[in-house]
Design a protein that fits this description.
By secondary structure, the protein is an alpha/beta fold. Helix content is 40%, strand content 14%.
Length: 154
């Protein structure tokens, strides 16, 4: 059986999508699932950079290590490589669809978030409960997404 492949996408691939990738990798490891997980950004602004300090910090607080991830830009070839592409907000979803991606979901469509955008911590002034709320949302949505993908109900 081939691995299910999931790509998480945000703007710069340094805040939200690396958190989603790290969380998904931990869930996959914990549940012994055959998943290939990656993340990317719509832009190339942060190509090669590590995730932002706040994302690394909140992930570490939840025993998830994303410090070795590096930002990359979405490639057109990703649309054929991944079974599911998951955007962190509606703008990124629309951009992916404009690029010809057809297998795109909004992360906020999962875990009863009713299609909400994942807030972008890049614009938070301080490390506070807002980043914890972002982490909680991403974790719940990724858990639900993986469950549905594994059960074939996605």
């Amino acid at each position: 059986m081939s691995k299910l492949k999931i790509l998480f996408v945000c703007v710069g691939n340094i805040c939200r999508s690396p958190l989603a990738e790290g969380i998904a990798r931990e869930i996959s490891k914990r549940k012994n699932l055959a998943l290939e997980i990656d993340s990317a950004g719509i832009s190339s602004w942060h190509e090669g950079e590590v995730p932002c300090a706040d994302s690394i910090k909140i992930a570490k607080m939840h025993h998830v290590d994303i410090s070795k991830l590096r930002a990359r830009q979405v490639k057109i070839t990703d649309k054929d490589k991944f079974d599911h592409v998951v955007a962190m907000d509606a703008k990124n979803k629309k951009k992916l669809e404009t690029l010809g991606f057809t297998n795109v979901y909004l992360l906020g469509e999962f875990a009863d978030y009713l299609g909400a955008d994942v807030p972008d911590p890049y614009f938070f002034d301080t490390f506070d409960e807002n980043i914890e709320n972002v982490y909680t949302m991403i974790e719940a949505c990724v858990e639900d997404l993986i469950e549905k993908a594994e059960n074939g109900t996605l």
